[in-house]
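Q: Structure tokens for this one, please.
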Amino acid sequence: MFTRKSMSRSIVPFLVGCALAFFPLAAAGQVQVLETRPFGSTTGPRAAVPDKPCASDDFTIAEMGWPSAAILAHIHARVIAARFGCSVRTVPGDPEATISSMTTTRQPAVAPEIWASRHADIWNGALRAQALRAAGDTFSGGALEAWFVPRYVLENHPGLTAASQLGDYWRVFAPNSAHRAQIVSCPADWACNLLTAKMIAAYGLSDRFNAVEPFDRFTLDRTIADKVAQREPVLTYYWQPNGLISRLDLVALDMGDFDLGNAQCMAIADCMPFGASRYAPDTVVIALAEWVFVNAPEIAAYFGRAQMPLEEMNRLLAWQTEHEASPEEVATHFILTRPQIWRHWTGMDAETGASRQAR
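A: Here is the predicted structure, written as tokens:
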């Protein structure tokens, strides 16, 4: 006998199949590869498009241990299997072990979320060995680290859009008309704690703002959530992708331009920057084994287009928390509700446009 829950779970694969069935299978012929080479390149000739677009009977995608990377692995596995008719599976991984495996065994074929700048030595070694490279950025549409405020603060103070304007709006964040405002920083043992303190000085806010240091991640999240629940103004450091940003409707302030010298100085305890800088950008990429570019150019082109908007990933992470969902279930939800995003990755938008022009 089926329960309501079991019936619901049994119908999900059918619905996903219907959503993905609107793909045509890959057409024969050469597909242009999107050349996105932020870390290096190879010079070898490219092979003709094979009969098997994935060039393998067992195309593997690394599923990392954190939520956004696991979700991306399952999304890409489903879309590629349906669009290109490949046999695709996810395999467990962690960044350094995955990069090493891609270098020595050519597997997995794809790692959808590699924070390359945090594993620079091993990443650069793999590039020098011409074992892998980046197809493109994992995310699009915003800064990974910034100062955030709830959307209702911006609606009540539409002139506030950037961190450089906080000197004019400090009273908004001063509780009970206090003489100093507050910014919620990071726990004391986090690197961003030092950066936030330096940024307060760099933006000329030392006389106006005190940094509130939460004890741990739980206290940080609870502090922000409690203020939002009371509709109080709050200014806080935070990062993306993260479900809390979607759940609390937080908006990043413009942190200005990136200045390498100032950013490097902010990371040193006894150095005082001459001016402001946004947080140093992390390099987060979709890593492909080199053979994918050479032997499976259609798949390489797919990943060259497959940037996930940060706002969308924030929503998916919030949905996962709310529904206590697995990465597979989040992938199903995305495929059913966001075809306008993944259809672009597959190149279907270009095919549709070309078809319309031919009429």
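A few notes: The chain is about 45% helix and 15% strand. The two ends are 52 Å apart (CA to CA).
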